[in-house]
Each structure stands twice: as structure tokens, then as C-alpha cells.
Amino acid sequence: MNALKKEKTAPKKDADSSNQQTVITLGATDTNLQGRITQEEINKQNDHVATLYEDREEKPERKVMHDDSKIGSELSYTHNERKTDFSEEQTDDNQRQRVEVMKDGRVATDQQMSERHHVSGDLIVVENQQISKEMNNNDTDFAPIVAYAQEPLLSLPEACAPLNDILYDLSVYVQLALDETPENPPDGLTIDESAAVRLYTIEWERPHRSLYSMLNYTLKNANREELRPYFNYLKLFLTAIVKIPCVPPLTVWRGVTKNLSAEFPPGTPVTWWSFSSCTTSLTVLENSMYLGNTGARTLFSVEAINGRTIRAHSHFVTEEEILLLPGTHMIVQSQLSPATDLYIIHLKQVIPEQTLLEPPFEGAHIYPEPKRPWYKKKRFFVPLSLLIILSIGAIIIGSVLGSRKQANILMYQCSDPYPSPKTSETGKLPVAVVFGNFKSVNQVDLAVLNYDDRSVDILLGNGKNDYETESHYHTDVAPNSVFNIDLNHDGLMDIIVANGDDDSISVLIDNDDETFHSSIEYLVGNNPVSVTGGDFNNDTLIDILVANADDDTVSLVLGDEEGTFSDIQIAFDVGSKPVYVISGDFNQDEILDWAVINQVDNTINVALGYGNATFDNLQTYSVGATPISMTCHDFNKDAKVDLVVVNYGDNSISVLFGKGDGTFEVQIVYEVGMSPSAVVTADFNNDSKMDLALTLSNESSIGVLYGNGNESFQKPVIYKVGTSPSALRADDFNNDGRVDLVVANSGENTFSILINDGNQTFQNQIKYATGLNPVAITSADYDNDKRIDVLVVNKGDNSVSLLLGNGDGTCRGRMPYRLQKIGNSMAAGDFNNDTKLDLVLTNTIDYSITLLLGSGYGTFQSEIIYKTHSQPNFVVVHDLNNDKMLDLVLVNQHNDSITVLLGNGDEIFQNGTRFATAERPSSVVVDDFNNDNKPDLAVTNLGANNIVVLLGYGNGAFQTYKTLKCGTSPNFIISVDLNRDHVMDLVVANLSDRTISILFGLGNATFQIQMKYDVDREPSHVMAGDFNNDNKMDIAVVGRLSHNMQVLFGDGNMTFSSRKR
Question: How does strand 28-30 pair with strand 912-916?
């Protein structure tokens, strides 16, 4: 198959990344719709396998080697067609320094390499049939590790002497460990003890095996005599380890890239015999060098009780793993499959009945030393026991006397485990959702595909199992301006909104709980378009000043109590069509003044206050054409307030420098860019000189003018934002001490946050969804969590939207990505091996798929379009040919086929191969249905009311094997082991007959006759998991017309009874 070339289309004038795309044409190889593999392909495959076996015979000593350097890639095994070379060291040079041993015996560190975590593995096997044995050793399989404890405690060189013939250049690494060890190691360790730990963490030069690798391999060997050369080192190493305090009980994680769920039914005892390095961060496991985000994966969630952290004694200062000791004994608690190909096994560590690991010296503790609680001490125990006995007696007597009927206390199993559902805002007509880590932090995010909006929304998780989006508050008609101020002196920021079409302002008081009181409206002049606030009569109460565009007035509304206002306004005549008003102390008398823009006159009026709600005669100053907004500050560092006016009509700003007495110099004009509309001032580059930022509406951008501090500004630096930016605000959204920007984009119903890098540059925008036609924006800490939030005024739907900040430059809101095509199905995976999650979407109408490459910040690069020559309506992601690169399976309903696209791992896919299905295929699932360790397919066919099973050859090719009956109009299918027989079963949502079908697998790609369960109207999707924590798999069904979800609780014995609506 030929790799594809990209053809880039010219971007539109709007330089937003969502308007750029790359188009790739995919050729398609037709298999005559029968999925037959040719004899030539079989011969090539056999030749490849033979070559691999020949390579294995040339290097027989490598069969016993394994890679212990990764958490998530620990499962090395052989396929029927090919073998894995276990001796190949798989370290990531981009994350870890590599120690190189030079020919003269000196040790050099490659400075080009950056450090990575040293992680030793223990789940390595060499045959598929050995998986259960290696992962599930019971106490009788291996002898306890005891004899080493009788060895004397030696220095590190002496303890390692028996290993000199086993480990390459060991003496050099021993000396390196000693040289790196401080004279007074932490945790009370001696130099030799600390160096022993450090030696364990050092990576040997390739291709030689490291100490930790060989030691762990030998520990997992049932023949304890092979461990004898390590006894002296184990004595020293474990003496050091047990002196390091146990971390408090916590949950740690390990993972393997294979489905091992069948090997770990609940209740199974498990013992890990090697030193086991685990992580507390799922982000580590999601890295593509470990588990990644797709393909068969098993996560082990371990409740550890005696883990140690060895960072203080590690060769790598960034060491963060939790080390579990040999003989760690656990019991399987439960299983969960939250997504296709992802299996989570919950293990709980327990202290074994017999000693599996002898402590290295008398008085040493392998497990945390039990502490006697205060209530068991003698001086507390006796009186406390008497008190408890008396209390129990009183309760019993009271129950007998106060009850006419004996209560029957029944033990029951949870059958309704969920509270009322939590909802999150999405775009119009969401049709698909996938989960993953789109922001590169330890939390699960969501991607939602919106059909009508032609967009994808990213909803960032908050770690609380919900996805907060914007909160909406209604205003009066046509809100167009907003101002922040603490109206009632409670330390919380309240908001004032001007409503243009009903001649009012709305006041919303902050509740300190992420909400506002219902708005209170006050009448003002005709068409209020701008609002500000301050104490204009020196009574300590906040007053409101409003510019009324249609009656050429400015209204002053006086505060009469904290947070409330007088119903009587004071009106001041100004110039023609006042559109923007600000307040400040222009004459340095500590009394508030104000200035207003008169748009028709191309002037501004300045009114100096007397401090009693009256003002001096207006002063008038000429500015540019069609002035639209204004700000004030000291721009030339003379301690006098200056004015800056934005002139929309002639693409300029007017700067009027203040004289300090309430008067201003004649304007100085600066050209700034196309259609400037809003302005803010701040010191963006921390040079103690005030800068400006402006929205340039017709350029879909903002311009930043850095001030020189001497009545001049540098040329604007342009940054792209959304369509028709209308308002902006400066604030610190990521708590780094630098001022960032937030911009309302009225032309596309979004706002953009641009984070300041501090070197006169801003990062690329991150967009969030708003209401209709956002025209004003402000920011403050509205929920009192010391993080800046964003509030947007939406003129098109008469609302304000509040989006709470996370304190890292992001908000808890929808991050929309506009698409060029209409998508109807979506899946996630890392398609270019950059460890960042990407998305693939099917575009049925356009005969294409869309690839969105993730940036790791919840945003995406320009979309790439692949032409498919079919109309795909469903997509799944999987590694179909075992090359560690993700492939795609597309369902093509219009021509009764599926298309397989093999990935190259560089965002390029090979030409597609089509395989026949039955009539109108609707969905597909990938799994191993005949236990040959090759991915197979099961396809639901909406028109034929059946399922077609296609068996895989392991190279991306498939053959039709069997047709299975199901219900009417099967719409969606999943595979899961429902009855704990280690064989995959199928669950199908039957759209037209209000049922789901369950087909229990027999392990040879055949299935039992379907069992049907009645559900609500038009079941469209199904999912499986242990939803009530009884260690039995349950099924959740989404009803498209019933607008609800049902949960069918399994009894573990092939039946499902109770259900939740």
C-alpha cells in the first residue's frame, strides 16, 4: 500500500486555525467485498515469520531477557506469527540521561539526553500461556525469599563482588553510585546503603542489562538458587529500603498493553515477586511509550500499604515512582471496563499469612509498624468500654420501649447507585462523545461532536466527575456593556449591565458560591450603551454612571443602600450620541470625574466632579473619526492621568495627555490597524511602562502597542483571535504575575484567552463558547477561590455567561473547534506518536474523514481531510497489524462495507482496503473473538438485522467468518466479558424493537443464540461496567426517544434483572 501525500488548501482570510485544512486523497483497494487474503500475502507473511525465527536462533541468549524500564510496556510476549526480541533495551532517550561507559572505564553522561523516570517492571513473560502464571503467582508457586537475610552486611563493592561476572562493568557503576552519594544520606542510611539504592536506579549502557533488570528477572524465577549471587546485594539493598519510611496507604498504578481481565476474577490472590515500580499519576501511563490511549490495555489499581519512595537516593533527581517490595501480596477486588479495550483491575494489598520476604535484620519492618490507637491504651480503655456498654444498653432499652413493632434490618445490594444526573452545555445536536486526556494533566476530559454546529467541543474535567460549562443569567433586552464593582462592600465583585433596547441597567449581586442573585433592573435614559461605577457623592456608597446614546445624556444613579439604588436618575446633557463613559480623577483632587465619547461629533466631553453628585461645565476635545471606546492612565510617567480614545472610522487612536488640572493637550494620533473597536491598558512586558491592547474587528485580531514611557508607542504587534472581536479585558488568568488578555468574538459566539509569555509575546488563543453575539466582557474572582473568572455579555440571547477559571489560564467551559465538514462519528487516539491525543471524525456527506491533531492544551492544529471514496458513518481506532501504530476501521453504510486504513504513525494513512458486510452496516467493534491474539471485527448491519464477524490475520486483513442474528435495526455494538468466563461477549442496541441483544461468546469466534432484554424506546448506544460495585458486569443503555439511560444490573451468571431508569 502506498503512503499518502498531503495537499494543502489555501486558508481563508480569517487566519483562525479552524479555517485551515489539509486534504489527502485515499486510494482504496477493493477485495471484491469478500475480505479474502491472497496466497501471495500468506507466503510473504510466512517468509517474514521465518526470518524472525532465524533471527531468534542466531541470538538464543536473548530469549530470557526482558525490558523492565517501563511501567506501561511491561508485557513482552510472542505471537503465533512473530516473536519479540526481549533483549532489546527500550529506553526513551528524550526523557532520560543515558550513562555511557567509555572504553577506558570512565563514565560519561550524555548531556544531549534529558532525564526520565527510572521505572522497573515485573510483569514480563515470554509466552502467552504464561501470562496467568507470571501475573497470578500464588504462594505455593515460589519459595519465600528468606536465605539472603543470613548474609553479613557488607560494603557496596563487597556486596556486588559475586555479580561481577553477571553484570557488565559493574565496578564502574558501583563507583558512580558511591561518588553520587552524599556524606550524610537522608533517612538515616549509611553511604553504602544509599549507594545501593542509587545503583539500582542506574541504567546500563546498551545493549547491556542493568542491575535492576537482571535482579527482577531472577526474583521472578522459581529456582531460588539462581538468586544466590544477589544475596549480599539484596541484604544491603533491602536494609536500606526498610529504613526508608513507608508512604501512607495510597492507590498506585501499573499497566500492560494487553487485555488480562480474564485472568483476574474478583477474589483471586496475586503475588508480585520482583521489586515493582508504580506511579501515582495516570498521565504517565497514558504516554505512548507506556500504555498510550488506545488498543488493548489493562490497568492495575493497587491499594498499597508498604510502598517506599526512593527519590532521595536515586540516580535521577526526578524519581517519583512508588517502589513495592518482592512478595507483595494482593487480592483482586473488582474489575471495570470504562471503555473499549480498557480494563481496570482493582487490587488490594494484604499482609500474607506466611512470610514471603524475610526482613533483612532483626527488628526491621517490611510493613508499617502498627500504632496502638489512643482508645486501646489502658487508661482510656476501661472507662471508654464502660461508657460504650452503657450507651448500647440505653439504645436497646429505648428501642424496646419506644417501638411497637420490631424493625427488620435487611442487608441489600445497591441497585440505584447514581444521584440525579449532572448536565453540561454542548453545541447543537451532539451526536458523539469520546473521553481522553486532551490537556496533558491527570484528569479525564470529553470531546463532543455537534452535528448542527459543525463543531467539536472540548470539556475539560475538574477531577470531581463532572464537566462544568458556562452558567447563564438573564438580563433585559439587548445587553451591550458590563462593569465590575463591589456594590455592597462584601469583598465580592458584582456586575452592572446596560440593556440597550429597554432603557435599563441590570444589577447582579455575587453570592460567593459561583452564582448571582436574580438581576434587579433600574430605568435610565434612551438606549444605554456604556456603564461605569464609583462614589460620585462621597457617601461611601457606589453610584452608577450610564451613557445613553439616543437622548444624548449621561445618567447618574445614586446608591441608597448597600447594593441597591435610587429609582431617580440625574441626567447630564452631553454631545451627540454618547457611546462610552469612564471615570477617574483627572485633576488630582481625589474626587471622581468622568469623560464620555460623543460619536457623531467626533469629540469627548470631560466633567470634573465636586464630590456631591454635581459637576463643572463640560470641556470638549476633538478626536478622530467615529470614536467608539476609551481608557485612562498615566502613559508618560508624569503622575497625571491621560486619555486614549479609539477611533473606529479612521483606524487610529487619539492620545490626550493630561495637564493635572482637569484639562488635556491636543490629541496625538497613532495609526493602529483596521477597525479598532475596544481598548485596555496594562504593563504587558513588565517594564513599568503602560501599554495598550486593541481589538481590530475587521482583521479578526488584536494589536498590542508597547509604550515607551515618553508619550509614544511602538508599532502594534498583531495576534489572531476570533471573528469580529468586539471587547477585551486584561487580567492574570494563570497566576504567574503577568497580565493576560481575554477577547469577546461577537462574530462566532466565542471568547479567546491569550496567555502572556512575558517577553512581549502572547501564546496562541484558547477559545471558549459563549451565548449569541457576545459584545462585552469582564473578569474577576466571582467565586472567591483566588482564581480569575470570565463574564461575557451576550446581546443576541439577552444573557450573561459566567465561566469559572482554573487558575492555569483555562476556564471550565466548552472549548469549541469549528469544522469545515459535517461530522457524524468520532474516535480518539495518538495518530502521530507525539503523546498528545488526537481526534478522527467521519464526514458522511463529504466522502471523507477529518483528522484533528491535538496540541496538549485542549486545542487542535489545522484539520487534515482524507478523501475516502466512500461515505463513512462510523469509525473505531485500533492497532490492527501489531506495528504499534494506530489504524482505522470505517463503516460505510451506503455501499455495505467497511474500510481499513493502516496508519504509519506520522498522521499519514495507507490506501484503504474494503471488506464486505451485510446490508447497511451501522457500527463495528474490534476484539479477539477466537483467542489467537489477532484483532477481529464484529459489524452490526441495520438493514439485515444481523452481525457479521470477520476474523483477522494480524496484518490488517480480514475474512468473513460468521453471521449472527440479533434484534431489529442493530445500531451499536460493544464487546465485554459479562459472565467472567474469560471469553468476549457481544452486546447490541436494537433501535427498532426496544431491546438489547446479548450474545455470549464461546471463545472460537462463535456465540450462543442471542438473549433479548426489553428497554426503552429506540436504544441507540450501550456501554458496560461494574456500576454498583458488586464485582459483576452491568449494562447501561441510552434511549434516544426516551431521553434517559437505563442500567441493567448483572448477576454474573448470564442474566440481568434489575434496572434503573
Answer: parallel
Contacts of 874 (CB under 8 A, 6+ apart): 825, 842, 890, 891, 893, 921, 922, 923, 924
Task: Provide the angle, in degrees to the nearest 10, between the axes of the packed helices 191-201 and 211-219.
Answer: 90
> Alpha carbon 81 to chain centroid distance?
37
Which secondary-structure segment (H or E) carries 385? Answer: helix 378-402
C-alpha cell at 182: 552524599
**812/312 Cα distance (integer angstroms):** 37
Cβ–Cβ < 8 Å for 950, 960: yes
573 CB-contact burial (10 Å; exposed 0-12 / middle 13-18 / buried 19+): exposed
For residue 204, count CB atoms less than 10 angstroms from its CB and return exposed for 0-12, middle for 13-18, buried for 19 or more. buried
> How far from chain centre, in Å, is Cα 136?
32
DSSP state of 626: S
Summarised one tens digit per residue, pLDDT across range 836-887 is 888 898 988 888 999 988 877 667 787 888 888 888 999 999 999 999 999 9
Cell numbers standing for residue 90: 527500550
Between vectors from CA 858 to CA 856 and to CA 859, what angle results, nearest 5°?
Answer: 90
Q: Provide, rounded to the nearest whole percent, the portion of the chain with pLDDT above 70.
A: 73
What domains are defined for the chain? Answer: 63-349 (3.90.176.10), 471-514+672-812 (2.130.10.130), 525-667 (2.120.10.30), 919-1061 (2.130.10.10)
Q: Output phi, psi for 447, to 5 deg.
A: -120, 125
In this structure, the strands spanning 1044-1050 and 593-598 are unpaired
Peptide bond between residue 207 and the one before it cis (omega within 30 degrees of 0): yes
Which residues have C-beta within 8 Å of that of residue 503, sequence separation ≥ 6?
523, 524, 525, 526, 527, 528, 548
Sign of the torsion formed by the C-alpha atoms of 454, 456, 459 and 465: positive
pLDDT level of residue 450 (50, 70, 90 thresholds): low
Strand 322-324: give its sheet, edge to edge.
276-278, 322-324, 308-309
CB atoms within 10 A of CB 222: 11
Percentage helix, strand, coil for the chain under 3-state DSSP, each rounded to 5: 15, 35, 50
Give pLDDT tens digits for 257-296: 888 888 888 888 999 999 998 887 665 555 554 566 777 8
| Contact (CB, 8 A) for 556 and 577 | no
| Single-letter amino acid code for the residue at 884 | K
- Tell me the C-alpha distance between 203 and 209, whole Å: 8
Side chain identity, residue 534? G
The SS3 of residue 258 is: coil
Strand arrangement of the beta sheet that strand 668-671 belongs to: 627-633, 642-647, 652-656, 668-671
At what angle are helices 191-201 and 170-180 packed, to 10 degrees? 120
C-alpha distances (whole Å) from 852 to each of 6, 82, 170, 837, 849 are 14, 33, 48, 9, 10
Sign of CA dihedral 112, 194, 160, 172: positive
Banded model confidence at residue 1043, pLDDT cuts 50, 70, 90: low
The three three-digit cell numbers of residue 627, written as one number? 470614536
Sheet with 21-25: strands ordered across: 7-8, 21-25, 863-867, 848-852, 838-843, 825-829
DSSP structural state of residue 261: G
Alpha-carbon gap, residue 1032 to 801, rounded angstroms: 43
In angstroms, the Cα distances linking 628 to 631, 648, 691 are 11, 6, 19
Angle formed by the axes of helices 211-219 and 231-243, to 10°?
100
Please state whether the predicted TM-score (pTM) of the whole model is above 0.85.
no
The grid coordinates listed for 1033 are 458486569
Question: Partners of 570 in the beta sheet?
Answer: 556
